[in-house]
Amino acid sequence: SQKDNKMDKDGVSGYVHSKFYDEYVEAISEFVRIPSLNPIFDQEWQVNKSLEKQCQHLVGYLEKQEIQGVKYHALVDEKRTPFLIVTIDPFNSPKNKEECVLMYGHMDKQPFLDGWITDPCEPVIKDGRLYGRGSSDDGYAFFTAVLSVKACQAQNKSHPSIVITIEGSEEGMIDDLLYYLENYKGLLGKPTIVVCLDSVSFTEETLTITSCLRGCITFDIYAQVAENNMHSGMGGGICPNVYNILNCALARVQDFKTQ
């Protein structure tokens, strides 16, 4: 009934709120304290092992939740950034054995850059908001995914098979994600839906769900119509216009009317 559904939502919501202030905030604060930059922004990443420390921190949080049916694989292949795979068996859900939810996030951060009033690796809570590098991109992802599962189990609510993947090289052009997905695809099952916990929210009051993303393509394009430069008074209208050629070529890649 609608009443039962309302009570279910209140129970799960109440559990999340209690754990948010009891454990979640401290976990994400510790995430901020660990300067987990990927190889593009930290040349000493293999020496200071901050990415591995971050991965261990995530595992520590996971273990404290005592989730039923959970297994994890903290992978650190040679010359690769860490990659964490968490698998969780279906809970109280015999009808959803074939369903599999894949959740994604990343443990590496953007570089610290300038303009910080406080230390970017020291979490600061001001006016109800937590400030610190990596807290929103993408520190919340893992803790949110784990807490959502724990909330379901704590309230005896069903959930399907769940896989959580957390990479260590999202911020930059590194192919470690593809490497791990290809080499450890046996751990991923057959996802029926992918939830990427790394997007934007326009307001604090509205849950924002991004259903699709448009990618970005970077390339060099070269067009030549003559061996030498030509004055417009001599070649205009006779020699093909390079800009028109390029415009036509780009129009084949992107529809400027809709995009």
Automatic annotation (TrEMBL):
The keyword Protease applies. Coiled coil: none annotated. The lineage of its organism: Eukaryota, Sar, Alveolata, Ciliophora, Intramacronucleata. Gene3D superfamilies: 3.30.70.360, Zn peptidases. GO terms for biological process: proteolysis. It comes from the Eukaryota. One of its GO terms (molecular function) is metal ion binding. Pfam families: Peptidase_M20. The keyword Metal-binding applies. This is Uncharacterized protein. Keywords: Hydrolase, Metal-binding, Protease.
